[in-house]
Amino acid sequence: MKAEKFFTHPVGIAVAATVTTFLWGSSFPFIKKSYEHLQIGKSDIFEQMLFAGYRFVLAALGILLVMLLLRKQLGYQTGSLKRLVKVGAFQTFLQYIFFILVLATVQGSKVLLLRGLPPFFKLSWPILCTRMIH
What three-state secondary structure class fits 2? Predict the structure, then answer.
């Protein structure tokens, strides 16, 4: 079955959503257990960032491997570097720094709840605004 057909079929959508939810939800306990195993303390910010860097590099290598196995072409859009740096520096990097600081000091389940709130508000806010206008 081709990937496009699978991911547009209701069963494929449900399977993909379930796997993604499992992987995303299991990352918090995994990170906390890894901190314990590697003896990374709550105040060891540099070690926490280094561990995050290792995880991101492994994830990038995994994506690269899958792309190579699927024989997908790697490409670069001319002129997109400036936008990538802006998003990477201001959104991803700063957001992840704050995430690491919170994760080191708070239980994983509470972090999961805190991380789930922004998308909820992003989805709820337009609906509430639309109802208030009409």
Answer: coil
Distance (Å, rounded) from C-alpha 105 to C-alpha 77? 40
Contact 131, 54 (CB under 8 A): no
Q: Give the whole-angstrom CA distance, residue 107 versus residue 55.
A: 20
Q: What is the pLDDT of residues 18-74, one digit of tens each?
A: 888 787 777 777 888 888 999 998 888 889 888 988 888 898 898 889 888 888 887
Per DSSP, 9 falls in state: S
- How many Å separate Cα 5 from the centre of its chain? 25
Radius of gyration for the chain, computed over Cα atoms and rounded to the nearest angstrom: 19
Only one residue has tokens 């239980």, namely 107
